[in-house]
Amino acid sequence: MRPPRRSLRSICVITSCLAAATLVACAQSDPADPTGSAGGSSSGDAGATGTGGNGAGAGTSGAGVAGTTGATGTAGTTGSGVAGTSGAGDAGTTGTTGTAGRGGTTGSAGTTGTAGSAGTTGAAGRGGATGSAGSTGAGGRGGSIGLGGSTGAAGRGGATGTGGTTGTAGTTGTGGTTGSGGAAAVDCSATIPTSGGTMHSGTSQGTAGTLSWSLWENGSGGSITTYTSTPAFSAAWGPNSGDFLARIGLQWGNGKAVSALGTVAAQYTETKSGSGGGYSYLGIYGWSTNPCIEWYIVDDSYNKMPVNPGNTTNKGMVTIDGGSYILYTRPTSGTGGSRCSGVSSWTQFYSVRTTARTCGQITISDHFAAWANAGMTLGSVLEASILVEVGGGTGSIDFPTATVTAM
């Protein structure tokens, strides 16, 4: 708290008193106060509202202490009382700022669970052992081929009958058929059935099981025996048979493009006896139209291999099914007409194996491809059949296995 200030009036009084050293002069310093005494008049009230600060009347030499916060008292008209100095009230003590409450303790985060151990990768299973190729199943018989039309008297191949629907090929044994170039899984010791055969003689054609058969000769005395339950056949000819052809396989009516045939293959086993005249071909046979092509794949002959039909153009050599084949083309007019309507001269294609064989698989589609590469282009393929063709002699042949598939 600051000490109360003294008024100028009080200072004057005190000074005057000290200077004059008389009490009278001090008393006359406030003549307007009717109650003033020689000893000095008491001061007016220090104001009713002064707290603790009663203004002291000016004594002989004392000054009233101003109230701390009292209002200035109303002075007498001319009283000599010294107005009490309005004491400035002490400002209230500023309250101390409350202590900020402490933030609540932050809860500790839960312990992060440890990630589960990654499961170990199971050991890769070992690949199963590759099944053995196993004997090729019969391959399934192709669908029944419709009876061809009656063979024309001059037609070597006869008029093409409407081909029947080709049946679904049978399921092959474990491992499937051997691919191109591999050894065919054919039973080379198979024998011809002893029963269930039907013999056909003279120029004729028909179906046996799911395959189509055909017999053509420009003489007489030849025959073919077919089996409904087994893809097999036998053939025989005599001195009067002339040019003789017996075959069994697939026919495609008015023809199919090579690209639409899928993979065409044949499996065969053959046992021959007797003779085959001046020329003979054992293997695969067929025709195409647009262009008109008569084609052969020759695996064996009654003559020495490799045979050469004569008047041929060599188109190179290829290896198919483990053997080497010479490719030939040859122009011909045949001995009994073509299977192409209105065509009397046509071209023959040959694949002639350099060494003879009597059993195996012939991947016919591979020969088609080899011919195309050599510029020997087939048209729409009419048939693909296992064949025996002879140009005279007296003999016979058995094909205990004779099947052709396209898939």
Mean pLDDT: 70
Query: What's the count of strands?
Result: 15
The unreliable regions are 1-155, 157-183
**Topology as a string of helices (H) and strands (E):** HHEEEEEEEEEEEEEHEE
Tell me the count of domains.
2
In percent terms, what proportion of residues is strand? 25-35%
The structural class is mainly beta
What is Rg?
Answer: 68 Å
By CATH, the architecture of the largest domain is named Sandwich
CATH fold-level topology of the largest domain: Jelly Rolls
Largest sheet features: 9 strands, mixed
Quick one: CATH class of the largest domain? Mainly Beta
Shape: globular
Identify the CATH homologous superfamily of the largest domain.
Glycoside hydrolase family 11/12, catalytic domain
How are the SSEs ordered, and which strands pair?
Blueprint lengths: L7 H13 L2 H5 L169 E5 L2 E5 L2 E7 L5 E5 L5 E5 L5 E14 L7 E11 L5 E10 L3 E8 L12 E8 L2 E10 L13 E8 L5 E5 H10 L6 E12 L3 E12 L1
Parallel strand pairs: 9-12
Antiparallel strand pairs: 1-4, 2-3, 3-6, 4-5, 5-15, 6-14, 7-13, 7-15, 8-9, 8-14, 10-11, 11-12
Key features?
mainly beta; 2 domains; 7% helix; 407 residues; Jelly Rolls; six-stranded antiparallel β-sheet
Summarize the structure.
By secondary structure, the chain is mostly beta strands. The protein has helices at residues 8-20, 23-27, 364-373, and strands at 197-201, 204-208, 211-217, 223-227, 233-237, 243-256, 264-274, 280-289, 293-300, 313-320, 323-332, 346-353, 359-363, 380-391, 395-406. 7% of the residues lie in helices and 31% in strands.
